[in-house]
UniProtKB/TrEMBL annotation, chain A:
Transmembrane segments: 12-30, 37-56, 674-691
Superkingdom of origin organism: Bacteria
Source species: Paracoccus thiocyanatus
Keywords, comma-separated and alphabetical: Membrane, Transmembrane, Transmembrane helix
Lineage: Bacteria, Pseudomonadati, Pseudomonadota, Alphaproteobacteria, Rhodobacterales
Keyword Membrane: yes
Protein name: Glutamine amidotransferase domain-containing protein
KW Metal-binding (keyword) present: no
SUPFAM superfamilies tied to this protein: Class I glutamine amidotransferase-like
Gene3D superfamilies cross-referenced by the UniProt entry: 3.40.50.880
UniProtKB/TrEMBL annotation, chain B:
Biological source species: Paracoccus thiocyanatus
Keyword Signal: yes
Keyword Isomerase applies: no
Signal peptide boundaries: 1-22
Domain DUF4159: 39-256
Keywords of the record: Signal
Name of a matching Pfam family: DUF4159
The name this protein goes by in its record: DUF4159 domain-containing protein
Length: 705, 281
């Protein structure tokens, strides 16, 4: 960086005028035939030049090295067989060749797994931004090309960007693509998952012809299997069966071929559908208006998600008065419609102090029994009528009730207590204020209950007077029956002797009957907290809970021991090794847990491709070359020239040295010192004078002689 | 001598046990009230009024037994100073000029009773003279009820659930008729649902109903089941007594079932919806 600069002593026009004058003098001398005209003119110009003050300026330069970004992709998709070795070899070879180039530095950028997939674009943009634009001589990425952040890729780069693709030419893969999956679904109503099977890469002919054998599991239970040819979209109907997470796992076995597909990890996917209850419909049948009836109404009416249909027998068929019908506000109980036609629309039927008095026909009770066996729920809150001849137990419904009355009624104050089962049962465990040893908490007493003999299969969770069963649960077929042998739960609501958690207890009983997963006795819960950390909670009525067997996505199993965290609660914290579909099992009970995305993003696509990085390579005159064709040679070319080509020894790629330098200082030297200018001008003038003088003498001598 | 000592020891033990159980067990009258939904009345100290209250509630209980599924036991008189009100559902409170207001502790209990779902029927028994400008029960009522947490009141509207909780009623006569009856004011945003002839009022139960129609006297029967007080004259009077009983039935149904009758108008709509969903499926 050096050059001539001017530092005029007079203003430029004056210097110009002087130069013009010198030229005019020269021309005038020529016209007059003066022999020294050239000397005169040059002397004048020299004077003008001296006034212009020419100087030599030069910088102090340091040559800067070129920077080559060497990016290696170590994401999970690069862990497929052979790719890691390919990457290692390529990076080693490139490092060696680049190190051999003079003044070339290597910037290594390693891209590892990210929850959002392989972030090559981000890494490249960041690496380029970190380096001075003038020194970047190129970038070389060793990758399978499966970047998931195409929008983050820079549009261009200061040097050529080369992409060396790992993988083999004969790589192929068959994968499952979930095109559309709902996140929520109403329980019992079908939702649609759209999916297809896609073949990628060099699919062997024998595989391309065969459809994939799809296996579809709902919550780990086989739902259906079907054959789906590749490329054909399928609308799969799934019915969420319960509230909470319904995991639909869809998968197919790796197709049989001489050369196996790249990975079978994208052959399956887990779709999580949150089951949401439609509005709950509760039928409340009160046998008579009584003090506790409004308790039920308050509970059910305060829940915006409940449609309550309530019937109270205000007047039994055996009582009449002379009041004309049009002065009464009574309507007939639409028993046939409720108990025969519509019964399956109800999620729960509550019999509140109901006495059998000929209003319901025996076949209705039979129908209620069938309804329970098919998955319905009944809650009986029985008053003293249970011990009478009008007991529900004497109806056909009695066969499914969890207890049989003895006819004895305890009319004495008693304190409801949790039984051993009750302390474990999710309905009663953790009820606020439960009487416990060593605590002041206290429930109010109730004043009356019926003695019953519980069915051996029933669970007694609360006991009352003389430790007789107060609250019993049983399962009948697919349905549930709960029975409260006292009608005085309302005393808790009234605050008698301090009261008790009456609304909470009744709410839990009702929701347990409706099979709310949160209140299941035997439950295996998994709370995903943080990335892959899972809190496993096993709720059980058994005294112990075995280790939970966890089946990993790759089929290996491990066992996690559980520690007791309270009555009937066993927990463990466990960290999954990676995203995927895990199956947790403890004996009969199992649960499918999907961690991370539906299918691991890294394995969505596995066949190496330059589709994402290709445009950038093209824009920067770089190349996308498969490493399976051999390692390309490395050259240097000038900027703007094609940076790749086919040589004698195979393909080559090039970097463009930038010859960058830094300037650390500047020197300013006048072209000639002042006295030299003076001598020069004087010399020129003298030469002109001499030339003219000597010429005239010579001419006179010639004329005189 | 020895047997005397033994007897004394036994007596002492018995007394001690009795004292223990008395302290431990709730009042058996109130237990019976909780078990049988017995109607309760406030003891005023005025023997005549208390007798009328008891006879009135007895008459109403007998009528409920005869006509409805509600089968209350014998009515009980309540002294708020000593009795635990949380076992009661309904309390009839005749207002007299002479009665002493309950103590602050009793008001705490009364307020808890009102908050937790109980109901008090205040009866000033002055339906014949109220509103004429002369002295009536209003002042005494105000003095008694001032410490109670009573929500804003309004005359019972014509579409209140009290008018249809068992019988269809237009007014609420007792021994007198035509007097204004007050209950909790409907919420300002009460709207009539489409196709329903009345507004959805009082989601819940008014903690008090106030009137002056001397209802207990109109319901009162003696041991033989005969009316104790005359109402009006002749057939008209008996018709009024019947209406008074109907009001009593409606009131007890309202206390026990709340807005059940108000909701029931929605049942056909709910059933319709079930039907429609079936068609859609």
């Amino acid at each position: 960086m050096s050059g001539l600069t001017f530092d005029p002593m007079l203003a430029w026009p004056l210097v110009g005028a002087l130069a013009l004058l010198a030229l005019l003098v020269g021309l005038w001398s020529l016209w007059r035939g003066l022999r020294g005209w050239a000397w005169r003119g040059i002397a004048g110009l020299a004077a003008a030049a001296a006034l212009a003050g020419p100087a030599l300026e030069s910088g102090i330069r340091h040559k800067l090295s070129d920077i080559v970004i060497l990016l290696d992709d170590r994401s999970a998709s690069q862990s497929l067989p052979g790719r890691a070795e390919q990457t290692d070899a390529a990076v080693e070879e490139l490092t060696r060749q680049l190190a051999a180039l003079p003044d070339t530095e290597i910037r290594r950028v390693t891209v590892s797994d990210d929850p959002d997939g392989t972030q090559i674009g981000t890494a490249l943009t960041r690496a380029l931004a970190a380096e001075p634009q003038g020194r970047v001589a190129g970038a070389i990425a060793v990758t399978d090309g499966l970047a998931h952040d195409a929008p983050m890729l820079p549009a261009t780069a200061p040097g050529p960007v080369h992409v060396l693709l790992t993988g083999q030419a004969q790589d192929w893969d068959r994968r499952l693509v979930i095109e559309e999956a709902p996140a929520y679904g109403l329980i019992g109503k079908p939702v649609t998952i759209r999916l297809r099977v896609e073949d990628q890469g060099a699919v062997p002919a024998e595989v391309a012809q065969t459809p994939a054998r799809l296996r579809i599991l709902l919550d780990g239970k086989e739902m259906r299997g079907l054959d789906l040819p590749p490329g054909v979209p399928l609308d799969l109907e799934v019915v969420p069966e319960h509230a909470g997470q319904n995991v639909v796992s869809i998968g197919f076995d790796a197709p049989q071929a001489a050369l196996p597909e790249l990975t079978d990890r994208n052959n399956s996917a887990a779709v999580q559908i949150e089951g949401v209850r439609d509005r709950l419909r509760v039928l409340l049948v009160s046998g008579a208006p009584h003090a506790g009836e409004r308790t039920w109404r308050n509970l059910l009416k305060s829940d915006a998600n409940v449609d309550l249909i309530h019937f109270t027998i205000l007047r039994p068929p055996d009582k009449m008065d002379a009041v004309p019908v049009d002065e009464m506000s009574l309507i007939a109980f639409p028993t046939h419609e409720l108990f025969m036609e519509r019964i399956r629309d109800f999620d729960l039927i509550i019999f509140d102090r109901y006495r059998v008095r000929g209003i319901l026909l025996p076949q209705y009770y039979d129908n209620i029994r069938r309804y329970v066996e098919e998955g319905g729920a009944i809650l009986v809150s029985a008053g003293p009528e249970m011990s009478s001849v009008e007991s529900l137990n004497l109806s056909p419904l009695g066969a499914i009730l969890p207890a049989r009355p003895t006819g004895r009624i305890y009319a004495e104050p008693f304190l409801p207590r949790l039984t051993e089962d009750g302390a474990r049962h999710p309905v009663t465990a953790g009820l606020p204020g439960a009487p416990a040893e060593g605590s002041d908490s206290h429930w109010g007493r109730w004043l009356r209950m019926s003695q019953v003999i519980p069915d051996p299969r029933a669970q007694v969770v609360l006991s009352g007077a003389q430790d007789q069963p107060l609250l019993l649960f049983s399962r009948v077929g697919k349905g549930r029956v709960a029975m409260l042998t006292s009608d005085q739960v309302w005393l808790w609501g009234r605050g008698f002797e301090g009261g008790g958690p009456q609304l909470e207890l009744l709410r839990r009983i009702a929701h347990w009957s409706m099979q709310e997963p949160e209140l299941e006795e035997e439950a295996l819960l998994a709370d995903v907290g943080g990335e892959l950390t899972v809190t496993i909670t096993r709720r059980t009525m058994n005294p112990t809970a075995g280790p939970v067997t966890i089946t990993r996505p790759d089929g290996r199993t491990e066992e996690v021991a559980l520690a007791e965290a309270g009555p009937g609660r066993f927990t463990a914290r466990w960290t999954a090794p990676g995203p995927g579909l895990y199956r947790l099992a403890d004996g009969e009970i199992s649960r499918v847990l999907a961690l991370g995305p539906a299918a691991p993003r890294e394995f969505e696509e596995t066949v190496a491709s330059g589709a994402v990085l290709g445009p950038l390579a093209q824009a920067t005159q770089g190349a996308v070359l498969p490493l399976s064709d051999g390692m390309p040679g490395l050259r240097t070319v000038r900027e703007g020239r094609p940076a790749h080509g086919q040589g004698v020894g195979g393909p080559w790629i090039a970097i463009t040295p930038r010859n960058a330098a830094s300037v650390s200082g500047m020197t300013h030297r006048p072209l000639l010192p002042g006295w030299a200018w003076l001598a020069l001008i004087a010399g020129l003038a003298l030469a002109g004078w001499l030339a003219e003088g000597r010429g005239r003498l010579r001419a006179q001598a010639a004329a005189g002689g | 001598m020895r047997w005397l000592l033994t007897f004394a020891a036994l007596l002492w033990a018995g007394l001690w046990a009795g004292a223990l159980s008395a302290q431990d067990g709730p009042d058996p009258r109130l237990v019976r009230a909780a078990d049988e939904v017995a109607l309760a009345y406030m003891l005023t100290g005025d023997a005549e009024v208390d007798a009328a209250s008891q006879a009135g509630l007895r008459g109403l209980s007998q009528l409920l037994n005869a006509r409805t599924t509600v089968e209350p036991g014998q009515p009980i008189g309540i002294d708020p100073e000593t009795d635990d009100l949380s076992l009661l559902t309904f309390l009839y409170w005749p207002v007299t000029d002479a009665q002493a207001p309950p103590s602050p502790q009793a008001y705490v209990r009364l307020n808890h009773f009102l908050r937790s779902g109980g109901m008090i029927l205040f009866d000033t028994r002055d339906g014949d003279i109220a509103g004429l400008g002369g002295p009536d029960g209003g002042a005494a009522l105000q003095a008694l009820a001032a410490p109670l947490d009573i929500p804003p009141l309004a005359p019972v509207p014509a579409d209140h659930v009290l008018t249809r909780s068992f019988y269809l009623l237009r007014d609420f006569p007792g021994r007198y008729q035509g007097g204004q009856v007050w209950a909790e004011a409907p919420p300002a945003d009460a709207q009539a649902a489409e196709g329903v002839p009345f507004r959805n009022l009082n989601d819940g139960v008014s903690p008090v109903v106030i009137g002056g129609n001397a209802w207990a006297e109109s319901w009162a029967v003696d041991e033989n089941g005969l009316p104790m007080f005359s109402i009006g004259s002749g057939f008209e009077g008996e018709r009024q007594r019947e209406m008074a009983y109907r009001f009593g039935v409606n009131l007890i149904m309202y206390v026990l079932t709340g807005n059940y009758k108000s909701d029931q108008v929605h049942v056909p709509a709910l059933l319709d919806r079930l039907r429609q969903e079936e068609v859609v499926q």
